[in-house]
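re: ur question from earlier - yeah i can do the single chain one, its not a big deal. heres the input i used so u can compare w yours
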Amino acid sequence: MDIIAALEAELAEDRYGPLREHLAVNDDHLLEQLVKMRKSKHLTQDEVAARMHRSKTAVSNFERLGSDPHLSTIRRYAAAIGGRIVTRLDDFDSEVLDTEVDAIVSVSIKVPKSGNLPETRQSPAGVWETV
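and the output i got, formated as tokens:
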């Protein structure tokens, strides 16, 4: 068996791969929404840092795309900007008993009627810019 066939076989056996991807996308979306809320309230990173009793660098690192903050840090940041986080846990296994796993993963992208796509250097919500 060549390496491509071995990788394809391994991926086919990984029914939780799409779930992990979905969860990661949700994490990124939550962080984007937190930063978007901070900006909509015209709060600076310095102000949020003071409310969190952390440094501005810590807030900047939290807001950086690809960061993986602790739940306690997410809660502290949300409280500092006056946000409330509501969580829900669903049983993935019970939802996919008779369903294709691929149907679980869905992405919704809004494209302006003009057909212009958002600049690729920004996240879908336009919160983060890559450096």
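DSSP finds six helices and no strands in the chain. not sure if urs matches, ping me
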